[in-house]
Specification:
The structure is a single chain. The protein has a four-stranded antiparallel sheet with strand order 2-1-4-3. Helix content is 53%, strand content 11%. The chain is α+β, with helices and mostly antiparallel strands and 294 residues long. The chain has eleven helices and four strands. The protein has four domains: 1-33; 36-91, no CATH class; 94-136 and 240-294, no CATH class; 137-235, Roll (Chitinase A, domain 3).
Length: 294
């Protein structure tokens, strides 16, 4: 007896049928790739058990008890079984996430190998000399300031000059009575030029060059207005000695070596392959651009 067409279509829409078909397909693939599955052996070595214990202890700050250790081993066994079964089914093929992870692992291995290198003092000194901008320390200042708001005065320059004349020779608590109200700090202690410019505006600290110490000078100009400055201490920008910043130099040297080694590895790997790019017709302009950049 033939089933009506609408009945056949209804059956084909059943999720259970889809599940059975998918299961049958996986079974066929499994059978094709698993001729030696019954003889497969999975060994959990003593070293692996110690590693599982160590990882547990580093997380929970105590050793696992017997039940927890058994659970760790069971989870490891299942992880390994699923991994092997997935490989036999070819589930690792054409998976972008797996490809990226394997690429990362290879890069990590290369980086770890480079981190084992121990640079000599001569190498570090040369690196410090060649990359002074990375390690040069900013100038630092300690100063007090009095603010003149240009929006509150018809002639803020004259106001600044008059205040400067009043302040000459004055060294006491009455200084805070001068100037206009502002949210800016009354002064900074041992502040870097970068931090000073962050608060007062780009280039503000450059005006400190050549200024005398321990006396009121100005006006100096910021993003906010005019300032009278009492410079109390100044340390010029400097390149520290190697022994002062050895850790930072070693870290930067190692990072640069890792990046250089990665570029060499990229180039070496590329040379092992004939790379053919089949550009779509809609991207022929990119093809020409790429060809012209070689």
């Amino acid at each position: 007896m033939r089933l009506p067409i609408h009945v056949i279509r209804q059956i084909l829409k059943e999720p259970l049928l889809h599940f059975l078909l998918l299961g049958s397909l996986l079974f066929v693939l499994y059978s094709l790739k698993n001729d030696a599955a019954e003889s497969s052996t999975l060994v959990v070595s003593k070293e692996k058990i110690v590693q599982l214990e160590t990882l547990f202890e580093s997380t929970w700050k105590r050793k696992p008890d017997e039940t927890q250790l058994k659970s760790l081993i069971d989870n490891y066994v299942l992880d390994e079984i699923y991994y092997r079964e997935a490989l036999m089914l070819g589930l690792d093929q054409n998976d972008v996430i797996i490809k990226r992870r394997l690429k990362q692992k290879l890069e990590f291995i290369s980086a770890d190998m480079m981190s084992l290198l121990k640079p000599s003092d001569e190498q570090l000194s040369q690196y410090l000399h060649n990359h002074q901008d990375k390690f040069r320390q900013d100038a630092r200042f300690s100063f007090r300031q009095i603010y003149i708001n240009p929006d509150k005065h018809d002639d803020p320059q004259r106001v600044a000059s008059d205040l400067l004349a009043e302040l000459t020779g004055l060294q006491g608590p009455d200084e805070h009575l001068f100037g206009d109200t502002t949210m800016l700090p009354e002064g900074l202690t041992n502040s870097s030029s970068r931090n000073t410019d962050r608060l007062f505006g780009n280039g503000f600290s450059d005006q400190f060059d050549g200024q005398p110490m321990e006396q009121w000078v100005g006006p100096m100009f910021s993003s906010f207005g005019l300032h009278l400055i009492h410079l109390e201490s100044k340390q010029d920008a400097r390149l520290p000695e190697l022994d002062e910043i050895r850790g930072a130099v070693v870290s930067e040297w190692t990072y640069d070596k890792q990046q250089s080694n990665k570029r060499l590895m990229d180039d070496r790997f590329r040379k092992n392959y004939l790379i053919v790019i089949d550009w779509p017709e809609s991207l022929t302009g990119l093809e020409k651009q790429a060809a012209g950049s070689d």
